[in-house]
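Hallway conversation turned thread

IA: we were arguing at lunch whether anyone had actually written out Reverse transcriptase domain-containing protein end to end. Turns out nobody had. So, for the record, here is the sequence (121 residues) and right after it the C-alpha cells. Reply here if something looks off.
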Amino acid sequence: MQNVKKFSQNKNVLLNAKKTKVMDSDKSTASSISIDNEALENVTHFNYLGANIVADGKITPDIRKRLAIATSKLKSMMNIWKSQSTPLKMRILKSCIFPVATYGCETWTLTKKDVEKNRCI
C-alpha cells in the first residue's frame, strides 16, 4: 500500500486513509492494511457508483434494487402508457426503463437462482 501512496503523491494525488476502505473477498485470511501506521477500515459491503458490492460476491440485493428502481420509473410514467402508440412506448421502454434495470449488470455474476427469480433479466 505504501507503493500506491508514493505513486499517488508523485502525481499530486493525496490518499486519505480515513476515507479508504478495504474488502476481503477471501474470508479464510483476514488482512490488515495500513498507511503511515494508520489501519484501513475492513468492510463487508459498500456502495460504489450506485452498485452494492458485497464481500461474499452475491448480487441478489443489487438485482432487486435495480429492478425496484426500474419498476418505480415505469409506474411514474403511467400517463404515457395509457395515451401513446405502441411503437413509441417500446422506444421509451428501451431507452428509459431497461438501462435503469440493467445499470452495472456487466459486473454481475448471475447464479441459477438469480436467473430463476428474476426472469425479466
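OS: looked through it. The two ends are 39 Å apart (CA to CA).
IA: good, adding that to the notes. DSSP finds five helices and six strands in the chain.
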